[in-house]
Specification:
Number of helices: 9
Distance between the termini: 25 Å
Structural class: alpha+beta
CATH architecture of the largest domain: 2-Layer Sandwich
Length: 290
Amino acid sequence: MLSITMITCFLYGFDVIFTPLGSVEQILSVVESAEESVYVTSYSVDHPEVIQSLDYLASRGVDVRAITETPFAAGNIKMKIDVEKSLFHMKTIILDDHTAILSSANFTVHSLKESYNDLIIVSSKKFASQLKQFFLEMWAGRDFSLNAEAEGLRVFTHDIENEVLNRISQAKKSVCIAMYALTHPELWAILKILNCRGVNVRVVADKWFLANSPIAQIPSEGFEVRVVKSRTLHSKLIIVDEKCVITGSANATKSGYNSNAELAVVVTDEAVVSEYISYFEHLFKEGESF
């Protein structure tokens, strides 16, 4: 299991969690701190302890709502299922007006106990309030883009492709990628160009990459690509020059960056970035050359 760290910055708190987790107790302790509302977005939810915790809060009168792509046994939880043609793929939990959990993991047994994922818990009233308003707009069926910031962190839902490609293109020293689905042709082309310029490019992919991505058949032009086969690598992680982390719910695919309902996270806080560098190195060591 990877280490968990707490970084406090003025009025903001960052709690970074990497899975797989032997226990979801830390997540549940944050969720159960809610007194007024818990709003969940996820592609799917099936972890029994997470559902039990949400249902318990709802039974106490907390306003608990969930928007998902796939239904689950909700009990007292108010639930809406996304019916759009594109995937509803963002993964967040917003607690009252003070805390937000931003995740690459669905709130499922497989994601939290059996896969490599990352979650950032942000304690900030202003930040959480913006995400709460965003959720309520989605709940009401209104198209509403999100662009919210805390110190050293930004989340957004639109123009993900341009943001990601621009940040990678500006790399001077290194680009590290740990990604579940990697099929974006322009991203791959940029990596090849950067490698030719002397930028150290390293990629860790899930075994899904070998079976499903046409990019797996394209020569990597000298940079190293490894594949994790021991368990699911579900993170959507990019680290640029060891100074900027891009994470969130979006895979490096055309649909992930353009058409799905996704949430992208950019982190520049040095302590948080350092934790992600250690996480990447763990994954890179775990991966096998192909």
